[in-house]
Design goal:
Helices cover 39% and strands 13% of the residues. It contains 10 helices and 10 strands. Bound molecules: zinc ion (ZN).
Length: 362
């Protein structure tokens, strides 16, 4: 069974000058996959995205946000100048169009998984989405791709339990906002691991943010100390994600994959290697195998060291295709003793205490 790769040149048309969230990110990924003959490999299938409908965008966004993206894109087109939705979030003449395809690429991949054409998928899309909430685009993000895909699966495909894993280095605050009170028609658990908000944008994602109402106990934040390496995310998986998923039994796993946790990424201060995300994905795949009929859809968020990101994406594709041993490895990195002690003796026990009222496993 094959692994889908969503890509189309429309994603390059969200063209925002010298901004770090550049079209070159995707060019580098696709060039590297070509160089490695991934696209000729019959185990991989290129998926052509479609446009999401406005009704689908409205599953999570207010009309005013959609109108703003459309109008600011038109202004950029008319003036032939990049415009801004906020200080960080730039828009070109084709941003609105590319954003509809960015969401739609994820929906198309979800459909192909459900139709049995592919086993799982990686959506190499942009603009990214996880910082945008219902009413505001932020942090290089336009429409919240993963949140819309989640609601799509619940509302149109009848899923009841979706797990979102966000491993971008920045807290997935937009996705968290959208699901803070849960989803009306299903249950959503969100696991976000990110560099501690005291040291990085957007400054949120602390242990106390656990959701409310129907969503209470289902927002699970893992604020990693700066310089944490690959070992610490595996601890999060083993101690928190695995027991929660055994209890929650997600029917579909959606991943917001950022590759800005790499130790060389200039926007962040983490210590992951290019094999770090793939090794984490191996564990997530076991959960998907057990409870989700192997259904995993990965959507691209951040990642600004383009050559490292391309290799890390390649590694994730290899894991999706069950070639767990065929990863490109760089020298392994481990967190220093002080960080390990903090995570094992303070952070994880504090998380378990917070989650204890909501999950029997704690
Ligand atoms: Zn990020």
């Amino acid at each position: 069974m094959t692994t889908g790769i969503v890509y189309d040149d429309i994603y390059l048309e969200h063209r925002i000058g010298t901004h770090v969230e550049s079209h070159l990110r995707l060019i580098e990924i696709m060039n590297f996959l070509k160089e490695k003959n991934v696209l000729e490999d019959p185990n991989f299938k290129l998926i052509e995205p479609r446009k999401a409908t406005l009704d689908q965008i409205k599953y999570v966004h207010e009309d005013s946000l959609i109108r703003e993206v459309c109008e600011v894109s038109q202004l950029a087109e008319k003036t032939n100048n990049i415009q801004y939705l906020d200080m960080d979030t730039a828009v070109s003449g084709k941003t609105y169009e590319a954003s509809l395809f960015s969401v739609g690429g994820n929906l198309q991949a979800a459909d192909e998984i459900l139709e049995g054409n592919i086993k799982n998928a990686f959506a190499a899309v942009r603009p990214p989405g996880h910082h945008s909430n219902s009413y505001k685009c932020a942090g290089f993000c336009i429409f919240n791709n993963i949140a819309i895909a989640t609601e799509y699966l619940i509302r149109e495909k009848g899923f009841k339990r979706i797990a979102i894993v966000d491993w971008d280095c920045h807290h997935g605050n937009g996705t968290q906002d959208i699901f803070y009170n849960g989803s009306e028609n299903g249950e959503v658990v969100m696991f976000s691991s990110h560099q501690d908000g005291r040291t990085l944008y957007p400054g949120s994602g602390f242990l106390g943010e656990i959701g409310s109402g129907k969503g209470e106990g289902k927002i699970i934040n893992f604020p990693m100390p700066p310089r944490a390496a690959d070992d610490i995310i595996i601890t999060f998986f083993d101690e928190i994600i695995s027991p929660v998923c055994k209890e929650f039994k997600p029917e579909f796993i959606l991943i917001s994959a950022g590759f800005d946790t790499h130790w060389t990424d200039t926007l962040t201060n983490m210590g992951w290697t290019i094999q770090g995300p793939a090794n984490y994905l191996k564990r997530i795949k076991e959960i998907a195998k057990e409870y989700s009929n192997d259904r995993i859809l990965i959507t691209l968020e951040g990642g600004y060291e383009v050559d490292k990101q391309a290799r890390a994406v390649y590694n994730c594709l290899k894991v999706l295709n069950d070639e767990d041993e065929n990863l490109i490895q760089e020298e392994s990195r481990t967190s220093n003793k002080e960080l390990l002690t903090y995570v094992n003796e303070k952070l994880i026990p504090a998380m378990k205490k917070k989650l204890n009222p909501y999950w029997n496993c704690f």
